[in-house]
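Aim 2 progress update. The chain analyzed this quarter is reproduced below.
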Amino acid sequence: MRRTKLFSAILAVVLLAVPIMVLGIRKKVEMARTLEVTFDYKRQAGPGSNQYAVWIENEKGEVVKTLFVTSFTTKGRTRPGEQPMRGYVKRPACVPVWVKASKAEEQTDKQLDAYTGATPKVDGMQRFSWDFTDAAGKIVKKGTYKVFVEATLFGESDITYSGAFTAMDNAGEIVLTPTLTKDDEAHKDMVTNVKALLK
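Predicted structure tokens:
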């Protein structure tokens, strides 16, 4: 009789523990491990456009990692007889939010090269991902972070999308808020359908 009661008690404990364990596993599976940023890009005609940057900041407003910045921004274009000059120096309206936040002027060409890429020559979706590591490749601490997508539409017309999230958030879409410096109807379609998804 005692053995039967003991067995029943053990069985009850096991049966109660299983759902808790399953819930714990499910929660771990749902927790995000990657941030994916996407947007539709449409190449614009003429100079003063087609520049953008994607980056992550911590809650102090410090850039944790730049995922991408267009090559003109960091390298500029040198014509015969001209001295090399970074694009944001030659054209101060070129992704100014990223330039200031990243302290681009304090970075070496080699550091900038690590995340610089060519401006797309064709229209289409652009995709970037963040694996919750910093510029040195180390996993970031728990806390609140912000994702930014900045696009220089034309001249001084600049739009920045930003959204906050935590390193412990479950999978799901981050709400992004756009900030536009100056309207430009002719170039407004350069970057559209901007999304940030924790996966």
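The longest helix spans residues 2-30. Confidence is low (pLDDT under 50) at residues 18-29. These observations will guide the mutagenesis experiments scheduled for the next reporting period.
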